[in-house]
């Protein structure tokens, strides 16, 4: 798959007319490849059960779940033509890429949604190496809930794989959460269920890893592998564990962290973690990637099968990923201070909020499918939450006055978690999606160096859809 997508997804020289930046094989990749979104079928569950009708992306042939892996090297461009063969409008967002605003796919803010039968050409540079993903950004709960998501991998310019202390191999694992009925069909028709939306969101009953329930991966004895974990669930927070595999975290949301040993990895919706694992030197009990669905019980969602002769010598200390070198450090001497206060949902509720420019009480909001707000504004598209000058440091205070955690995603930027970091973060982590626990306040800071109108929303898509959305502007 990697080879075919490397061929299919055109990457070409940076805008500078920079011949020196032309990647190898640039000519072979000269046509804008297609990314078609269309109904398809996927065998999510074991083959004694029916295949699931899904919506899926394809570069050629029929759509797959997840969509084809797009893989480039930092500094290269992705060019693709979205072809919408879905029964409804759509747009593609390249989650976590510090992208030019017009290519962000954040309908309706940065583009109008692409109607059925229409196309839209995306072309963008990928400045920073790391693990990203792409997904539909219109009717997200339904479109991602039906399968419109895929991995977007930006490799380091100087390969890390194969270096001393690095991994010899990597695996991309895209995790999704499906709500299936007894015939393995997606439970539709309740994408805007306000009961779910006012709680933790739409929870599935079937976890897949790369579009399969409990797939198995081979591991050589003693082998060091880099896992690129992506939480592509619409709403589910995923506590993960890799017992017996000594997991070390090396990147969050694509951005490197000094390698740290972790017992569990908590991935909110849209978050990614790069984790280095070491297979045991001797055959051992069954190994798996485990998920805790919230009841305290861990269960395997992917298995690892040990095989082959032990790797010698043992790989030793984990080699850190190379620093990005592209992200400006926040200057906190005179930042622009902005705040996002989250309100609403079950157990707390809210008195009222403004929606489409009109102040409404709780009942009218609910009648409009709204149960959440940011700073007293629900689904705020009319005006930005704040405006920053290009190059200005923004210190953003994220306050959660609700009973539920939220996964706050900033488009176009990555932010640094400040000392007040809450239970889900560590100060200094750099992320594009930040979990804020119930009743927590988390401070983040970033340099607003990417001009445009950028969405800021909860990535629990049921929450986004029912009010937790706004935007900020960099001018
Ligand atoms: Cu991954 Cu606005 O989204
Ligand atoms: Cu939320």
Automatic annotation (TrEMBL):
It comes from the Bacteria. CDD domains: CuRO_1_CumA_like. GO terms for molecular function: copper ion binding; oxidoreductase activity. It holds the Pfam family Cu-oxidase_3. Residues 1-28 form the signal peptide. Keywords: Metal-binding, Oxidoreductase, Signal. Residues 63-157, 171-282, 372-474 form the Plastocyanin-like domain. This is Multicopper oxidase domain protein.
